Amino acid sequence: MLDLANSLPNATHQFVHPFTQLAEVEASGPTVLVAGEGVRVTDRDGRELLDGFAGLWCVNIGYGRIEVVEAARQQMSKLPYASSFFGFANEPALRLAEELVRLSPESLQHVFFTLGGSDAVDSTLKIIRYFFNVTSRPEKKHVIGLERGYHGVSSAGAGLTGLSNCHLFFDLPLPYQHHIPSHYRYRSTYGSTDAEIINGSIDALQAKVAELGGSSKVAAFFCEPVQGSGGVIVPPEGWLAAMRDACAKLDILFVVDEVITGFGRTGQLFACDWERVEPDLMTIAKGLTSGYSPMGAVLLSDEIYRALVKQVPRDLPFAHGFTYTGHPVSAAVALACLEIYEREQLPENAKVVGAHLLKGLEALRENPWIGDVRGKGLLAAIELVANQKTRAPFEPGLGVSQLVRKKAYENGLIVRAFADNIIGLAPPLIVSEDDVDQMLERLARAIHAAK
Ligand code: PLP
How many domains does the chain have? Predict the structure, then answer.
C-alpha cells in the first residue's frame, strides 16, 4: 500500500532535476521545500529561510496570497479548462490579453499565450520566421543575441541563449543563431564608460549584421533589459533605447525578453518603461503569475499580428499553439497578480527597497572577496573575486559561489549561485527594508563562513 501521508519521498534518481549536478543530488538527495509565507519558506526539516531569490525570480507577490489561491479555486470550479484552438476562448484569458496590452509599451497590441518563458521565446522565433516568410522576405533568417544572454531552453531558444553550458553536448547554437559581446562593464570588451559600452554594442551589432550578409539576411536582435542568468548584468542607462534605435535603422526586429524583468522587478512594471522603449516583440512569464501557476506570453506589434492575419494562403489556420494556450486558471491567477502589483505598488517598492539592497551590498565591499556589486530594483548580484584590485577571478565554474550559497542556506537564506562566482539576489517584491537587512546579515555571515 502507498503510504503517501507518512513516507518522505526523495526520488533521487526517478526525478530528473533541471540545471542540477545530477550525480550530486543522487548522492545527497534533494532540498525539499514544503511551505511559504510572505518572503519566507520552510524546508522539510522545519528550517525557516528567507527567500532571497523569489523561487526562481518569479514569486514577486510573495507566498501565501490567499486571494490568488481563491481566484484559481473559483476558476477551477467554474471552468478548469477551455481550449483556445479553433476560435474558442475563455473569459479570464481574453481579459488578461486586454490588460497586458493596456499595461505594456504602446507598440505591443496583441498577446499570444504560452506556458512559460522558454516556449514564449520559441514561439517568438517561429512567429518571426512566419512573419518574414509571409511578407516576402524569406531570406531574413539570422537572429542575433548577446553573449551571457539567457532565453530559456527550447531547442531553438537555448541556442539563442549566450551561455556555453547551455550549448555543450546539445549541438547548439543552431547555424542561424549568433552572438555579440555583452555590455558587461566589470569585464568589458568595449571599455568602461557608458558611451564606450553603448557605441561598442551598436558597432558590434552593425558589424555582425554586415558579416551575415546585411539586413536582408537578418531577422532580429534579442536581449534582456538586464541580463539575468548571465549574472545580473545591468547595461548603462540609454543602452536599451540605443539598441532599439540601431535595430530600427538596420531594419531588423527588436525583441525584448522581459521574462525576469517584467512585472516590477527592476522598479517599473516593465524594464522597457525606464527608457520608453517600444519593442517589436516582448516575451514575458514568471511574474505574470508570480509562480502560482505556469504561464508566459509573447506580445506582438500590430504590424506583425496583421501579417499573421493576412497569411498566405488565406484558408489555412495559423498552425501554432499549445493545448494550454490561454489556460483559464493561469489567466485568473495572472489577473489576481496584476491587481496586487497595482494596489500594493510593488514596482515602486522594488525601486525603493532595491536601492536599500544595493546600498547594503555596497557596504559588504569591505570584504576583499567582493569584486563587483550591481543591480536594478530588486535584481542584484555580487561578483566574488580572488583579487579585488586586479579583478582576478577565482577558478572558473561554480566552486566559490556554490559554497557561499550552501553557507547562506545554513544561515537561513536562499540565494542563487551563478557561474563565474556570481551570487544573485532577487527577493519577492513585497520584501521590506528590515527583511533585506536580515538577508544582508546572513549573506555576510555566509561569505565569512565560506572563506
Ligand atoms: N527568458 C529569460 C530572460 C529567463 O530568465 C528565462 C528563465 O529563467 C526564460 C526565458 C525561460 O523561462 P522558463 O524557465 O519559464 O521556460
Answer: 2
Both 335 and 353 in a single domain? Answer: no
Domain containing 413 equals: 22-61+345-450
Beta strands in 44-163 (DSSP E): 48-51, 108-114, 142-146
Please tell me whether residues 193 and 248 are part of one structural domain: yes
Using a 6 Å cutoff on CB, does residue 149 contact ligand 1?
no
Each residue of 385-409: b (16+ CB within 10 Å) or e? beebeeeebbeeebebbbbbbebbb
Number of CB atoms found within 10 A of residue 191's CB: 12
Q: What is the ipTM of this complex?
A: 0.99
258 lines ligand 1 (CB under 6 A): no
Measure the CA–CA gap between 438 and 451, rounded to whole angstroms.
21
Among 311, 343, 375, identify where a domain stops. Answer: 343
Return the sign of the alpha-carbon dihedral for residues 380, 386, 392, 393: negative
Q: How far is the CA of 388 from the centre of ligand 1 (A)?
A: 31
> Do residues 106 and 186 both lie within one domain?
yes
Whether 150 lines ligand 1, by a CB cut-off of 6 Å, is: yes
Q: Are residues 189 and 338 in the same domain?
A: yes
The pTM score is 0.97
Ligand 1 centroid to residue 3 C-alpha, Å:
36
Which residue among 321, 343, 365 closes a domain?
343
State whether the beta carbon of 123 lies less than 6 angstroms from ligand 1: no
The verdict on the CB of residue 260 being under 6 Å from ligand 1 is yes
Which amino acid is residue 230, in one-letter code?
G
* Residue bearing cell 536562499: 414
**Cα–Cα distance, 122 to 298 (Å, whole number):** 10
Q: Are residues 278 and 409 in the same domain?
A: no
Ordered per-residue pLDDT tens for the chain, 451 residues: 556 666 788 998 899 999 999 999 999 999 999 999 999 999 999 999 999 999 999 999 999 999 999 999 999 999 999 999 999 999 999 999 999 999 999 999 999 999 999 999 999 999 999 999 999 999 999 999 999 999 999 999 999 999 999 999 999 999 999 999 999 999 988 999 999 999 999 999 999 999 999 999 999 999 999 999 999 999 999 999 999 999 999 999 999 999 999 999 999 999 999 999 999 999 999 999 999 999 999 999 999 999 999 887 777 889 999 999 999 999 999 999 999 999 999 999 999 999 999 999 999 999 999 999 999 999 999 999 999 999 999 877 668 999 999 999 999 999 999 988 999 999 999 999 999 999 999 999 999 999 8
